[in-house]
Design brief:
mainly alpha, 131 residues
């Protein structure tokens, strides 16, 4: 299904029929390192792979990484993704921002930084209210 570009159909199949584990999704992305597959992996709720895992895997394919950053930065639920992705640390999000800037993706870097700071502020407010 991946080779045919049917990423969301593949996701439905792997979740409902094949019952993929996180390692299976990671291997699939290693074999098919595309932006489209990476986006499909972060769209289920909860995402099946962290942004950290996706970015680490796509490091070897710059064109897919750039495309992923461009799409990631314009996700309508980016702040929620940042705040709920427990496997991607605040520091890693900041590294992603710096990498976007290095790649010349300045507006994407600004969007990701904004979502990261907003998620961090919201998280700190919840922590202070619980304390």
């Amino acid at each position: 299904m991946c080779r045919q570009g049917r990423y969301f159909g593949m996701m439905r199949y792997t979740q409902e029929v094949a019952h993929f584990q996180q390692e299976d999704y990671q291997f699939t992305l290693e074999v098919e390192p595309t932006c489209e597959l990476a986006l499909a992996l972060i769209h289920p709720r909860p995402p099946v792979l962290s942004v950290n895992a996706i970015v680490t895997t796509l490091q070897t394919n710059e064109s897919s990484l750039v495309a992923f950053y461009k799409e990631l930065a314009c996700q309508p639920n980016l702040e929620k993704l940042v705040s709920t992705d427990s496997k991607t640390s605040y520091e890693r999000w900041i590294e992603i921002v710096h990498q976007c800037e290095t790649l010349g993706l300045h507006s994407q870097a600004a969007n990701i930084l904004s979502a990261t700071k907003a998620a961090s502020t919201a998280s700190n407010a919840v922590t202070q209210n619980d304390g």
